[in-house]
Write the structure tokens for this entry.
Amino acid sequence: MILRWFEDRSLKKSEKNNIIKVISAMMQLDDIKKDTTLINEIDWDMTPEEAVRLYLEWGNNWASGNYVIRSKNDVTHYFVINNWGETPQIFLLRRNSESVEEIAQFDLPDPLLNDFHESVGKHKGVYAIEGKIKTWLQQELSQ
């Protein structure tokens, strides 16, 4: 999906090669399963909206009371479903107040695609994991 995005772009060959290195270095679900430290750092309640509020809208983080972001050393790891491409993709993100890093990417399993499409309709976007998808992912990472 991402490789197709930049094939037609006017990038130098070295720039394309750097992008390919980053993409191929991205973790898959099986890689996450092997990293118990990373699994323990996942915030299962974080949503894309909450992450923006906490890490990018600095004046708003007092309202919830659950989190207080004090510096770029405060980090969260959370999953989202990116539905901007042809098929929904699950991403594991690492966010602090300076940046967000996509550290894993994998397909949403076929049996869960229908549930996802029913919940969002035809709308493109980045969504929190919830319901059956969240349960499935938690079970996969607890094995």
In short: The chain has a mean pLDDT of 80. The two ends are 29 Å apart (CA to CA). Helices lie at 2-7, 13-25, 29-33, 36-41, 48-55, 110-120, 131-141. Residues 27-141 form one domain.
